[in-house]
Amino acid sequence: MTTFRTITIDGLDIFYREAGSRENPTILLLHGFPTSSHMFRNLIPALADRFHLVAPDYPGFGNSSMPTVDEFDYTFDHLAQIVEKFITALDLKKYSLYVMDYGAPVGYRIATKYPEQVQALIVQNGNAYEEGLREFTEPMKTYWQDPSSENAKKLRDFLTLEGTKWQYTNGARNLVAISPDTWNMDQLFLDRPGNAEIQMALFYDYRTNPQLYPQWQEYFRKHQPPTLIVWGKNDDIFPAEGAYPYQRDLKDIEFHLLDTGHFALEEDGDAIANYISQFITSRLQPISA
User: Fold this and answer.
1) Are 27 and 40 in contact (CB under 8 A)?
2) Residue 28: strand, helix, or coil
3) Are 106 and 29 in contact (CB under 8 A)?
4) Count of CB atoms within 10 A of residue 103's CB?
5) In sequence order, which ranges of the chain are alpha helices (DSSP H)?
6) How do residues 252-287 score in pLDDT, each as one tens digit?
7) From residue 74, how far is each of 20, 69, 77 by CA, in Å?
8) Alpha-carbon gap, residue 76 to 101, rounded angstroms
9) Closest CA to 39 of 154, 132, 126, 158
């Protein structure tokens, strides 16, 4: 059974989903933009018989607290600090990290700081290489150089229902398999007063992530976490060009490009669950089957 809990971290209510026995290996699931732990709603029960799964919502996302930009510094450093304190509060000593989209810069900040805690990586459209920053990120790069209202408008357009729906449908091979509940729910959270300013702050702070790519790649090379790549190859946001370079730095890597888009779990959740179960089981033997 998936449980829905809230814990207080630095005065904020951090919502999280949890399932599975703590006696089994833990998988910490870190969501992307513009979604929340809701993206793992089907994956969690698919794996809960063999693993302990925990999926938090970041501040400003999903069911967690949403302080304004004046009340909370919305940076990836700060989100990582909150998740780090969340890990401590839940007493997660060791875990595998599932990173997707924003989950990659959050998770890799934590992994580089606490490499001994991370038992394996599961990477689903989570970028750590310059090769993965292509045409889609050009308006964002322009905004980093000049955060003018004109440059901001191109990014604000991405916060609309049309932009949110596009993230789910672009690159999908079978549109009737993608539930409209996904983008409609995400949009409800995006449309809250003040949330657009939160997302713009994170768009601007994203410039700090490529600066850390060499550090993350050094972590891969030095610590060699067993890594499973399950990547939607039709993704225009983080295209497959960003998946291949992981093979340069990691020795124990299993690599799957899936015929789907950015939110690969929507079409290929069953396949991803099977890959995870086989991969983690082969590296970390669960106590119960």
Assistant:
1) no
2) strand
3) no
4) 27
5) 43-47, 76-89, 103-113, 138-145, 149-156, 161-169, 180-190, 195-205, 208-223, 246-249, 264-283
6) 999 999 999 999 999 999 999 999 999 999 998 644
7) 31, 7, 8
8) 12
9) 126
Chain centroid offset of residue 226 CA: 18
103 residue type, one letter: G
pLDDT digits (tens, 9 = 90+) for 175-230: 999 999 999 999 999 999 999 999 999 999 999 999 999 999 999 999 999 999 99
In whole angstroms, what is the distance from residue 77 CA to residue 105 CA? 9
Q: Which of 225, 212, 265, 199 is nearest to 41 (CA)?
A: 265
Q: Which residues are catalytic?
A: 262
Q: What one-character DSSP code corresponds to residue 241? A: G
**Exposure pattern of 152-185 as b/e (b: 16+ CB <10 Å)?**
beebeebbeeebbbbbbbbbbeeeeebeeebbeb
Residue 275 corresponds to which tokens in the numbers above?
Answer: 């890959």
Nearest residue to 162 (alpha-carbon basis) of 190, 204, 199, 121: 190
Rounded distance, CA 181 to CA 150, Å?
Answer: 32
